[in-house]
Structure formats: C-alpha cells, structure tokens
Write a structure and sequence with these properties.
This protein is α+β, with helices and mostly antiparallel strands. The protein has helices spanning 10-20, 92-100, 106-111, and strands at 4-9, 29-33, 36-40, 44-47, 52-63, 66-78, 84-88, 113-119, 151-153.
Length: 155
C-alpha cells in the first residue's frame, strides 16, 4: 500500500494525529540514548522550511526485560540523514520553537505548512468528515504537552 501524505498547518497536526489514531506504516524506532531507550513513532510530520521530521516519542528504560516508558516526548530528526537533533517534554510547536531558537514566533510556527508521512491511510479532517475525536485539545489536562522536563540534543 502506498504511503499517504497530506499538507496541514503545523499548529493543528498533533491534535489531528491523536484524534484519528493513525496507523503507522513503519515500525517505531528504538535508539539507545542517555542510558535509556528513545522510542519514536513511525509516523512523522515533515516541516519543509526547517528540513526536519517531528515524531511523538517516549524516553524509556528496561525493567525485567521489558521496555517501560518514563516520559512522553516530541523528537526532532534531520530530514536528510535521519540524525537525531533534539527532544523535549513539550508539544510539537513548543519543541520546534525551542529548537529553532527564535527564528519565528510560536504563532508563525503554528501556521507553517507541514506534511504527515508514514501513515497507512489518508487522514481526513474537518467539519463533518473528521475521523475521530471532538476537536478539543487532548492535552488540556496538563499532561506532557506543556510540562517542563528533559531538553536534549544539539541546535
């Protein structure tokens, strides 16, 4: 099956992915880092202006032979060579904003066009054709989206 790709506004894409429960085409990626395991989703959001892929992820540790998640993260990889660049316990927009270090405002970053890649079927989003959810922000409960926490990587 061919990979779907669709353009979105970066400020909306994280909520869209959570609401539609998109199924990844690729397996999650495991990388050993900081004495633990960085587990990132096979679904990625490509930001053409910055040449990066943004993934949801977890920082995990091994416990009795099993991977146990510790912190939910947003992870940034270089688009070209797939090199790890940065991660934080923030939502997509806040993590990329921190990484680009003031090259634009958060509001401008929210409006940036992006593409969702690595999904089995196209995500349809909008009034009456939404694939799931209520349109509310799933991070309104104060979980990992706006928490302070790990900040790693290079800029």
């Amino acid at each position: 099956m061919e990979e779907s790709s669709r353009k979105y506004q970066f400020g909306m894409v994280e909520d869209i992915l959570r609401e539609c429960e998109a199924e990844p085409m690729e397996p999650d990626r495991q990388t050993e880092i900081d004495g633990g395991i960085l587990l990132t989703s096979g679904i990625h959001v490509y930001l053409p202006r910055y040449g990066v892929n943004v993934h949801e992820g977890f920082f995990c540790h091994m416990e009795e032979g099993r991977i146990v998640p510790q912190n939910m993260l947003t992870v940034i990889y270089d688009r070209t060579d797939k090199e790890y660049l940065y991660d934080a316990e923030e939502n997509f927009v806040d993590t990329v904003y921190e990484w680009i270090d003031g090259q634009c405002t958060p509001e401008q970053l929210e409006q940036e066009p992006c593409e969702v890649k690595g999904i089995r079927k196209e995500i349809v989003y909008g009034k009456g054709i939404q694939t799931g959810g209520s349109g509310r922000n799933p991070c309104g409960d104060g979980t990992a989206c706006r928490s302070t926490g790990r900040h790693h990587g290079k800029r």
